[in-house]
Predict the structure of tRNA pseudouridine synthase A.
Amino acid sequence: MRNICMKVSYDGTNYSGFQTQPDGNAIQDYLEKAIDMLTGEKVKIHASGRTDAGVHAYGQVFHFHTTSKIPVERWCMALNSRLPRDIMVTEAREVPLDFHSRRSAKRKTYRYTINANQFPDLFRRNTELHHPGKLNVEAMSEGLKYLIGTHDFTSFASRHSTKPSHIRTVYDVHIERDQSMCRPGTRDQGLIHLYITGNGFLQHMVRIIAGTLLEVGKGRKKPEDIASILEAKDRMKAGPTAESKGLILWNVEYENFN
Amino acid sequence: MRNICMKVSYDGTNYSGFQTQPDGNAIQDYLEKAIDMLTGEKVKIHASGRTDAGVHAYGQVFHFHTTSKIPVERWCMALNSRLPRDIMVTEAREVPLDFHSRRSAKRKTYRYTINANQFPDLFRRNTELHHPGKLNVEAMSEGLKYLIGTHDFTSFASRHSTKPSHIRTVYDVHIERDQSMCRPGTRDQGLIHLYITGNGFLQHMVRIIAGTLLEVGKGRKKPEDIASILEAKDRMKAGPTAESKGLILWNVEYENFN
């Protein structure tokens, strides 16, 4: 028995999320089908975490056990030729049998993208939230700082979260701006990429953080409100859940495997 | 009678090119339909030039004559709400009646994008040519220089070109590299954006230039071969026509209107 670990990118637009669905239209379903076509084995894959419908991944990680003898360097090409064009594996390694994509993960990074130009970018319209209104990006950056550290993130979790503990650690959170496509003489404010790295994330956590941050950017909330929202442990105090299409699972890090 | 000039972006993936088609699936058809829905007038729009099926535009320009009294600042929103999501007008102006999008154009810029990473970028797969093999980008840049100036571009034009003269002037041509998505420790070479600005372009000209440049990058042709290919005035001497999806009409410039 071998344990194969892979990195996968996907455009989540046309899928019902990562986790297997009765309609077979989840990313997991297509990956398992491709592995079955290749090896003749009905394996169950385990990812670092689920992503919701419409959420994308640049560096999602999953593993599975197999008796197949296909050398690791062949897996990517072999699977990609059996996958839809918007799902693509980019790395394969053989890992110790006790490696687990979710349990062994040390840090995860998500990116949420807001396009604050007057017009959406046609070519990225499925991977950005369009918000043409004025945003105070400095206030947004300031508000973000309150998230760093170990907190109870109940205010930033879906009410349907079933996790026994809502305590998580955020290691880093920052904004990167891309103003390369701003048209001179307009109110274009460029792309705002919000990167957040932590030891784990609750359901909708990054999207609620993005939605709350937008309120700060609009001036409806103050940067320091983020601290009191955290303290309240009350989902009602935070902003709305931002649309899934702006979210991408960027990277997952492991102790001895990156 | 008024002359309205607009800028339009489109993702050409799902269309049969700019110019009106019997099946009604050209960009022009959708724009004219939207104007008809808005004004009740069956206008004919004139663009700065056609783009082929699968070719995109960031800053295509077109104009049309209308008796509609809608103020210019309302046109963009009004048309965009009547256009498919992958066609978007981003600017509208009233121009002198003798302004013509094609005849008045002074300079046009196209961009051709080659992704030279090991894997295609899922999120840009419709707007880049994927070429994972080793490319000598310095040789490509050197080869490009021979195109600058006024030349007979017969070698770089479709055999079906019906233009009486193949003499065009290339003002600027350069490569911009984007290595932000290269994964360390891999043979990823990043994105290669080829920008070319001229007073006009022949059918397939930029795509044949891109295809020939790829031959230079692969070492099958030398940079200085570009000079002798130009001189030969023979389409057979140049490289293949590169795929349409990597091409985008970037910008069109006018004397008193940019």
